[in-house]
């Protein structure tokens, strides 16, 4: 979906296809047919933006076969879909029965990550709509926090510097500008937006900035206004933002609250859990760990990195952090100019929800994604943006 900002610029809204994980090009084409086009039709739109996730296998197939790349672009056009952003965070295996820590490999100390992200940038120049010259690729925030020393930091910085130069050359060759957005995430080397400032201001140019994920922002108890103002003061750009909501428990000490949280502790993804104490942020790597004994203080609210559907917060005694998303969105696009022009709804956890909340059919999933996009549309219209055909 496209929206006209009051300043005259276009803001793009997409939903991320990592909710339909596919490792191959055939799988990606099936996503477009079975999910993305039906979401568009459910919304009654002639055109729908998608944030494509291209795993290693699919990306390499497209890079090595120009005919296949042209076929993918033609399929997007034929099905009324467009891609201005790619999700380059997961490398492969995002549909596995257990993802957990694997999603952080390879990290930015591994040359494979640089090669893959370069591939994605090249592919995006060919997939951008004819009337769009700017694309974005979101990526992991350097690495998981463990074993990340000064040597690793220097290696990652060198890789991102190389990438920046490649993106400059790519624009000279194609006329398309691709920017990379590091996505702060709890537990990573760059956990918060504040953590991103040092590494990003050390890089040349402005090709690489931050992807603000509002679930991650909320999980780390960051205040949206303060966080985004600090990025602006440091000159760090926001090429992309992901619209998502975390799981919130106001009174985790109560047995019924802990029972409700336990239903969200599942084996596929990490659900980093945080609480804000007088001494600062405390946390665990996973929700199950937080619920085990006294691993986390329970006299203040907990938030868990679990992307809950935007339009359907969990039943009491739990809720979501949709209000953080709303506040962040107001700062991102509600001012005189948009701080970012690429917004992506990223609820990839539909099939990880407690069994009673999961969509049971493909149609139910399509309707759920359409409902999330409708909520995002209504929020943007409320901020003064105008929906375009």
Automatic annotation (TrEMBL):
<dbReference type="GO" id="GO:0008270">
    <property type="term" value="F:zinc ion binding"/>
</dbReference>
<dbReference type="GO" id="GO:0016853">
    <property type="term" value="F:isomerase activity"/>
</dbReference>
<protein>
    <submittedName>
        <fullName>Xylose isomerase</fullName>
    </submittedName>
</protein>
<keyword id="KW-0413">Isomerase</keyword>
<dbReference type="InterPro" id="IPR018246">
    <property type="entry name" value="AP_endonuc_F2_Zn_BS"/>
</dbReference>
<dbReference type="Pfam" id="PF01261">
    <property type="entry name" value="AP_endonuc_2"/>
</dbReference>
<dbReference type="InterPro" id="IPR013022">
    <property type="entry name" value="Xyl_isomerase-like_TIM-brl"/>
</dbReference>
<feature type="domain" description="Xylose isomerase-like TIM barrel">
    <location>
        <begin position="68"/>
        <end position="223"/>
    </location>
</feature>
<dbReference type="InterPro" id="IPR036237">
    <property type="entry name" value="Xyl_isomerase-like_sf"/>
</dbReference>
